[in-house]
Amino acid sequence: MSLTDVQLRNVKPKAKPYRLTDSQGLYAEVHPNGSVYWRMKYRFDGKEKRLAIGVYPRVGLKDARKSRDDAKALLELGLDPSTEKRKRKAQHELASASGFEYIAREWHAKQAKLWSVNYAEKVERAMERDLIPYLSGSSIDQISAPDLLSVLRRVEKRGAVETAHRLMQIFGQIAKYAVSTGRAQRDMTPDLKGALATPKRYHFSAITEPPKVGRLLQMIDGYQGTPTVRAALRLAPLVFVRPKELRYAEWCEIDVSSAEWRIPASKMKMNQDHIVPLSRQAIEILEEQKLLTGHWGGFVFPSARSARRPMSDNAILSAFRNMGIYKEEMTGHGFRAMARTILDEVLGERVDLIEHQLAHAVKDSLGRAYNRTTHLPQRRLMMQRWADYLDALRATARNRLSE
């Protein structure tokens, strides 16, 4: 007698697995834990075999019988249902592995090992926001230039032209990876050259004329905001790291005894450890700041709202605005351009030392990347000369004000 839905709903497990027979080889196998598995018994090439169909109730009685009938149709064609099922699964897996989302995430996982954590997260967010939702249903080799352009135009229309170009670069890298792994024929992003609006080019504003630098340092000394923001402002020109690296500085990275700030690779744009030699002036600022935030043992410049978070990325810009300095004149990133220009053009420091201290990609004569300790003694002397020079500019500006 064939099974009914009522029987299946009321099935009771036993100490050992047992079967409930339906018809034409189909049966339900009841396990001691209460799980019910659909199976079909059949013969192929003179051998008795079993075909796994699914689990009840996800696969109902009606669907199980349909799968049985499909299997019998394959048998009539001389095909083994179990073999055909494995083939379909392999084809599905191949199709999934060729899908844009699968390849994009595979590419990202490999690249993330070479990037900083912050940059890897930034790229992943960009993919998940603007690429994957519109392209995930397609094999990467099926995505045409017009398909990608329509996706990028969505971003362009919201005014994020620079982001649209960056997304095209990301897609191009994913496509090149797909080509190298045999899942795409070519990267078609070159076909879109000129299709997007040209982004405006901005340079981080910086004060690079020595007299103006002196006046800026004087204004920072007189800043009336919070002590933490003031300390960050005073330290920024002495270390000229990227604004985010400054905000995320932690006390465990500061070694006053060796006069070094050791920034881990996970916080650096180039994903390499970086050492910032600390001048006497920088150490004085940090020792004062430690009285305020050192007992927490976390961020050197914590948020005013929570010691568990770093200072806001807008804190420095807001401080500049409060002092009457606008972003067209100076930004937090501008301290890097200030140091790069004056160290080279005024103080005559070696360009390779400057670039290395800026944590830019610097290679030796054999094309090898320098490690974090390369030329450290020379960089230490350079950083002290730089701090002393800033003191001199500050004193000159103060004297001019008093005249």
Report on the architecture of this protein:
The chain is α+β, with helices and mostly antiparallel strands and 403 residues long. It has three domains: 5-95, Integrase, DNA-binding domain (Double Stranded RNA Binding Domain), CATH 3.30.160; 100-192, DNA polymerase, domain 1, CATH 1.10.150.130; 210-402, Intergrase catalytic core (hpI Integrase, Chain A, Orthogonal Bundle). It has 16 helices and seven strands. It has a four-stranded antiparallel β-sheet with strand order 1-2-3-4, covered by helices on one side. It has a three-stranded antiparallel β-sheet with strand order 5-6-7. A hairpin with a 5-residue loop joins strand 2 (26-30) and strand 3 (36-44). The longest helix is centred in the last third of the chain and has 27 residues, at 376-402. The termini are far apart. 27% of the residues are buried.
Produce a short descriptive summary:
With 403 residues, the protein is an alpha+beta fold. It has helices spanning 5-9, 61-76, 81-97, 100-112, 117-130, 132-135, 145-157, 161-180, 210-221, 227-239, 243-247, 280-293, 315-322, 334-345, 351-357, 376-402; strands at 18-21, 26-30, 36-44, 47-56, 254-255, 260-263, 274-277.
Please describe the topology of this protein.
Layout: H1 5-9, E1 18-21, E2 26-30, E3 36-44, E4 47-56, H2 61-76, H3 81-97, H4 100-112, H5 117-130, H6 132-135, H7 145-157, H8 161-180, H9 210-221, H10 227-239, H11 243-247, E5 254-255, E6 260-263, E7 274-277, H12 280-293, H13 315-322, H14 334-345, H15 351-357, H16 376-402
Antiparallel strand pairs: 1-2, 2-3, 3-4, 5-6, 6-7
Helix pairs in contact: 4-5, 4-8, 7-8, 9-16, 10-12
